[in-house]
Amino acid sequence: MEEIKRKEEAEKEREARELAEALEELKIRNLTRFAKLLLDKTVMVYFPHMIDENNTCSAAFKMLAQYDQVTMAVHDQMEVQITKEKIPEMFYNCEIKLSESFKEALVEKPCLVSLLMYHGISPDSDSPQPLYLGMVEEKLASFVYGVMSHTEPPVTHTVAYNFQETREDGEVWPGVWTPLNYLSKASAVKVLFPHTLVTLDFKEEELPPPRYCMIFDASRANEINDVIEEYSEDIVKVGFFDSMDCAVAKRVAKSLKQLEKLGPEKIKQTKMVMALAKRTSDPLLAFSQLTPLYISPDTKIGSKECDMFFPPPNVFEDEEEEGDEDLVEEQEEEAEEGGEGEQEDGEEGDEEEGEGAEQLATEASVDEKSLASHEEGSGQGSVTEAKAETAEENVVE
User: Fold this and answer.
1) Which stretches make up the DUF4746 domain (predicted)?
2) Sign of CA dihedral 11, 13, 16, 18
3) Does residue 393 lie in a domain region?
4) Are residues 116 and 172 in the same domain?
5) Rounded to whole angstroms, how far apart are CA atoms 17 and 14?
6) The model's pTM
7) Each residue of 258-283: pLDDT tens digit?
8) Domain end: 199, 233, 253, which one?
9) Which among 133, 164, 199 is the end of a domain?
10) Which of 21, 188, 180 minimizes the C-alpha distance to 89?
11) Is residue 371's pLDDT more than 90?
């Protein structure tokens, strides 16, 4: 009994570990996708102790002119109250070490946060620099800290050095913070400027449900498709492959129209693969009655097989590329059908008119769908008024 119990506990631990890994991978994927929409933006945080009793942050005012040195400007700015629960998300993928006393002060009063936009043209350049993941973060962080590190002391006379504060107990508190990498930035923007998710129409991917993998002969695709339409909400993916082995299979068609173009002989060798979500037993029973060639024994194995047949798109490539290819193919099919229809109409017209003119073939060209670029709405929110002390003009020597 003890051995059985030990194995059950080990299995539960393994499942919990696999789930945690899957959730972390999904989080990184979503943050990377979000960061791709924020290529020209980054974040600057002024901690609560930088705001005086008059609700004024002189450091923020001084930095307005300093941002010109890195070709950036404030795009949005507001006060944000950080909660204890949000601290890990705000400093995600960040090695900064915050003392307990600093964390307590961080949640007592609001921070002043700035969303900065990169303008792309430096004083010594005539053309904008191409943007890439991590560029604006590196640019601002190098300027603020002098080093690309949150654990090393900032370089003398840099922004971070001038704004850090030594407390009575000798502890050094940072006055400002900016992320060093795109994952950290994306997570911070979600916490500090959550409205950008709506502005950019960003939808997070969710962890797929437990799935069964089912395989049929592609020659029965029309028959299977009738049942697919009935249980469409439970169908995660459908595709046509040249093999039943998920380790080596290659997709040869994505739709029935594409399948038909393969020809009868190749269709006989093609397999129809379906990822079926386990929500209720009805869909599984319905498809099982169609005598599939294969059905995964459980959702653990099935989910892994489905991931091999239908891996997610490379997050560093254009995430809409696959969808665009499908759209172009559909447009080409429609154009071909339209061209054939026009040709038939023309031939009928020629016969009626008794003319023997040769029918010209109609060409249909299809433009590839351009990816929708995402722009945030400009404008600056209500902010803490930043006032400078008259005796101080510059921060960085």
Assistant:
1) 173-321
2) negative
3) no
4) yes
5) 5
6) 0.73
7) 999 999 999 999 999 999 999 888 99
8) 199
9) 199
10) 188
11) no
